[in-house]
Every structure is written in C-alpha cells, then in structure tokens.
Amino acid sequence: MEGTNPVNKKLAAALSGGAVLVLALSGCSGDETNDKLNSWAKEVCDSVQPQIKKIAAANASIQKETSDDSAPADVQKADSQGFQDISDAYKAMATAIQQAGAPNVEDGEKKQKAAVAELNQLSTAYGELKKKSDALNIKDQAKFADGLEGVATELEKLSKTGSDALKELEKGEVGQAMAEQQSCKSANTSGEASVPAVPSEG
Fold first, then answer.
1. How many whole angstroms separate alpha carbon 27 and alpha carbon 175?
2. Measured distance CA(174)–CA(102) in Å, rounded
3. Is the CB of residue 7 less than 8 Å from the CB of residue 62?
4. What confidence tens digit (pLDDT) does each residue in 88-142 have?
5. How many CB atoms lie under 10 A from the CB of residue 155?
6. What is the pTM of this model?
7. Among residues 99, 108, 159, 105, which one has the least CA distance to residue 129?
C-alpha cells in the first residue's frame, strides 16, 4: 500500500467531526446564578468531565491506528475498543444528567429528559458501530476496506447529528452555571476534547 489508505483517512476525518459532540458539555462563559443551579451544574460537570476525557482518548486511539496504515486486525481492535469506550461514556453522561435531576430553570425537566434521551441514543449508535467493526473481515484486505468504508460513513452521519438537546439544556442560566464549574472549565481548556471538525473527502 502506498501512502495513507483513503478509507482510513475518511474514518479519521469522521472521528474528528464526532468529537465536536463532546464540546456541548464543556460550558461557555457566564456569571453567578442561583445556588440550586450551581449545585446541579457542579454535580453534572464533575460527573461528565471524566467521560469527555474518555471519549477524547478513544477518538485519539482510533485515529492513531487509522492514520498509520496499520494492519486490519490492529485497526479493528482499536475501533472495537474505541467505539465501546465512547458508547460507555455517553451512557455514563446520560446517567449523570438523569441522576442530577432537572436543573432549576424554566422547562428544566423537559430539557433534561431530551438531553438524556439524546445521550442514550448516541451510546446505542456507537454500540452498533462496535458490532459492525467486530464483524469486519480482517483476512481479506479488499473486503475489510469496504467494510471500514461503511463504518466511516455511519460515523460521518453520527458526527453530523449534532447535540441539539444538550445545547438546549445548556442555554442561558444553565450554561452560565456550568461555565463557573472548575471541572467544566478544565474540560473546555484541556484541548483533549477540542478536536475540530474535519470535512471528509469521499
């Protein structure tokens, strides 16, 4: 093989886009707000920060293998573990927001439920990607490339689904309260989750 496998490039690019989903939980800038909301924001931020790091690490691991023309077995192993880690992380985020309860703002419960549902959907979607990755034929380079193309396409779709419910949850006072939490600040400035979207080339 000469140069970087174009399928691997596509997968790496799609991964870069998917990482943007994480940024919705990194907080924005804001001022003081009510104590109940601050308490809620601290609970959520403290629970979510380790999951943001887990997702960033999984993305980095998959990108490393897909960027280096690694052997199919190595790519599959990295994909499988990475997708499982990402699925688990989104599930943990959903649980954290569920357990924190509704934020003390207008429509707080509605927004909370929507965000939990969205995170659970993401968890399921990455779980399905893991299954597809595990089923790839690593003994046949051509079939593996075709299968990986399918995984990359699914990942690309996922990266474009956005995180509307999360963004809605964090508007206004909630976003301000989260921005004041040290754990959300560190998630936003660490750079680990700040992978820019990269448009993939067919």
1. 6
2. 11
3. no
4. 999 999 999 999 999 989 999 999 999 999 999 999 999 999 999 999 999 988 8
5. 27
6. 0.81
7. 159
DSSP state of 200: -
Q: What is the pLDDT of residues 43-76, one digit of tens each?
A: 998 998 899 889 889 988 888 887 767 888 998 9
Q: What span, in angstroms and rounded, lies between the C-alpha atoms of 151 and 133?
A: 7
Query: Coil, strand, or helix at residue 136?
Result: coil
Tokens of 112: 């909370």
Q: Quick one: which of 5, 2, 7 has its CA closest to 155?
A: 7
The residue written with tokens 């990108």 in the block is 63
Report CA 77 to chain centroid distance, whole Å: 19
Return d(Cα 148, Cα 132) in angstroms, integer: 9
DSSP string spanning 13-39? HHHHHHGGGGGGGS--------HHHHH
